[in-house]
Write a structure and sequence with these properties.
Blueprint: H1 2-16, H2 22-29, H3 33-46, H4 67-70, H5 75-86, E1 94-97, H6 101-108, E2 116-120, H7 126-129, E3 135-139, E4 143-145, E5 150-152, H8 154-161, E6 167-170, E7 174-176, E8 179-182, H9 185-196, E9 201-204, E10 216-219, E11 226-230, H10 235-243, E12 247-251
Parallel strand pairs: 1-2, 1-6, 2-3, 6-9, 9-11, 11-12
Antiparallel strand pairs: 4-5, 7-8, 8-10
Helix pairs in contact: 2-3, 5-6, 8-9
Length: 252
């Protein structure tokens, strides 16, 4: 517990002051510089911090989702998507934040000057949410899945089904002609319940996900109100989504 509190505090310090010194952090938290380096490596691998340090890189396993690797793919595009999504949050909104690297970036850009409620089942978002006085946090727990940094359980899916949100920001591992897919079946029921509990659902995904199919199907396009992606999206896909009459936002 002590380490978890330190990690959250270190993350907040670096978000406030990217020009940090490892020696200063070590002195502040009364630990060794090696401990701080391990903390930074952990936070980087978890995707909590996107800053690049001179630290050993984790090696992703093949054939499965690896959150730390996803955070390094299409970073600029994801950052622009997340920034636009943050601008959609309004006073007194109730929002659901899904898992995924783009939604994780949104967590670091959430408004700090208006009150609203955040519902989430993503471990990575907790450092951004627990210290914000303007946010009412509802955390959906359960069994922890390391690869997606998320929680799920039958009991908490039922709890989620009794909540209502004005907006949901959802991620996907693949966009095919029939809809959206993810890596694991356990993600499906939580994602679907969250969609059904929201008045409006925004899909946040970079253009590299289009034309990709993953094993678990979780949503048709009819359940998505707006797709927010980058300008790398092909003309073919733009035309297809236009035919489906889906609102499409391409961020600069």
């Amino acid at each position: 517990m002590r380490r978890k509190l330190r990690l959250m505090a270190v993350a907040q310090d670096i978000l406030k002051n990217p020009a940090f010194k490892i020696s200063s952090l070590a002195e502040k938290y009364k630990v060794s510089e090696m401990t701080i380096r391990r903390d930074l490596k952990y936070l980087e691998d978890q995707g909590v911090l996107s800053h690049q340090w001179d630290l050993p890189k984790s090696v992703p396993s093949s054939g499965s989702y690896v959150f730390s690797k996803a955070c390094k793919d299409a970073k600029e595009e994801k950052a622009r998507i997340a920034k636009y999504a943050a601008s959609l949050i309004e006073k007194n909104d109730i929002i659901i934040l899904d898992t995924g690297s783009t939604v994780n970036l949104l967590g670091s850009l959430l408004p700090t000057d208006i009150p609203y409620t955040v519902i989430t089942y993503s471990e990575n978002l907790l450092p951004y949410l627990t210290l914000r006085r303007n946010i009412q946090l509802i955390f959906i727990g359960g069994y922890y899945h390391h690869e997606s940094r998320s929680f799920e359980s039958t009991e908490n899916v039922e709890f989620l089904s009794h909540l209502r949100a004005t907006k949901m920001f959802i991620s996907t591992a693949g966009v095919e002609k029939n809809g959206l897919t993810c890596f694991s079946q356990y993600e499906v029921i939580t994602k679907r319940t969250a969609i059904q509990s929201s008045l409006k659902t925004y899909l946040l995904t970079d253009s590299s996900k289009f034309g990709i199919t993953k094993p678990a199907f979780f949503s048709s396009f009819e359940e998505i109100d707006e797709i927010i992606t980058d300008r790398g999206l092909s003309p073919k896909w733009r035309k297809y989504l236009d035919q489906l009459d889906i609102q499409l936002t391409l961020v600069d």
